[in-house]
Amino acid sequence: MPTFNDPAAVAEEARQAMRGLAHASQRIDDPDVLYGVAGELLGTLRSLEQSLIQLSGACLTYQGRAAHDDGDRNLGAADAWAAADALAQAARHISGAEALLDQASGHLGRIAWQPPLRQWVSVVFLQGEEADRVLDLIDQDGTEAAMEHLRGFDYGEETTSAALVNGHVYDEPPTGMSEQRVNDGAYALVYSRAFGHVALYREHDPASETTTASTATEMTGTGPVQDAATAEDVQRALEERRDRVRGDGSWFTPDRIAQIKRDRGLGR
């Protein structure tokens, strides 16, 4: 929490807060938040401009106390003046950025975001040793083989229901700067060697979301979600089904993909 009386401590908190925002804004799942975030940043820039002006003034206020390590006060005073001038220039640049951000905020305030024409549901997310196996498969036989392999985890409406219940639905597959994305028809493969994870997403028609979500809630019909009562139950049931179809005795490969691996000589 800001102390309002310790500029060094508050500056540290501001740095950490902006670092957190830089991380959080790597992926925006809901465009409705853009206007609010822009407005908060506009207020941040105004405060930053004021702070820079005040720091510049402080440099001039204490210019008479400035000296280099060797005691040279003339050089110290010159540096204090130069710092004050640089801070004042920085404030002017912030003022320009503030005007542009104000324009952006005005544009965002006039937008009524419409529902997406398509969405993506999470089919499977793997990390650790399981992801390493898929990354090896990519290196050995390309992304097509990896996508064919991961499609073995897609159980159609059951996968869609689990994704809707758990909130694993996205306007675009989550993709960071260190991740690579490959599209193939209705599927998107996202993987990262740096972070050691692999994910597969499938296109979903939002128009069918109400029906599918209702099905997942009522738990009618057949499949692993039949008797599930909560999101955790749905996910657990789906995982149990995935476990039952792992048939090559090695890691997590469904039977039909295990056969492909054996045919291609990729078995371990």
Instruction: For the record, give the distance between the C-alpha atoms at the N and C termini, rounded to a whole number.
Output: 54 Å
Q: Give, in spatial order, the strands making up the sheet with the most strands.
A: 2-1-5-4-3
Number of helices: 9
Helical amount among residues, as a percent range?
Answer: 55-70%
Structural class: alpha+beta
**How many individual domains?**
2
What's this model, at a glance?
This protein is of the alpha+beta class.
Protein described:
- The chain folds into 2 domains: 31-109; 119-264, no CATH class.
- The longest helix has 37 residues, at 73-109.
- It is elongated, with a radius of gyration of 27 Å.
- With 268 residues, the protein is an alpha+beta fold.
- It has a 5-stranded antiparallel β-sheet with strand order 2-1-5-4-3.
- It has 9 helices and 5 strands, in the order αααβαααββββααα.
- α2 (33-61) packs antiparallel against α3 (73-109) and α6 (157-166) packs antiparallel against α8 (231-244).
- The model is unreliable at 215-227, 245-258 and 264-268 (pLDDT under 50).
- It has helices at residues 7-24, 33-61, 73-109, 129-141, 143-150, 157-166, 209-218, 231-244, 255-264, and strands spanning 119-127, 169-170, 180-184, 187-192, 197-204.
- The chain starts with 6 loop residues before the first helix and ends with a helix.
Defining key terms:
disordered C terminus; 268 residues; 9 helices; 2 domains; five-stranded antiparallel sheet; 11% strand; alpha+beta
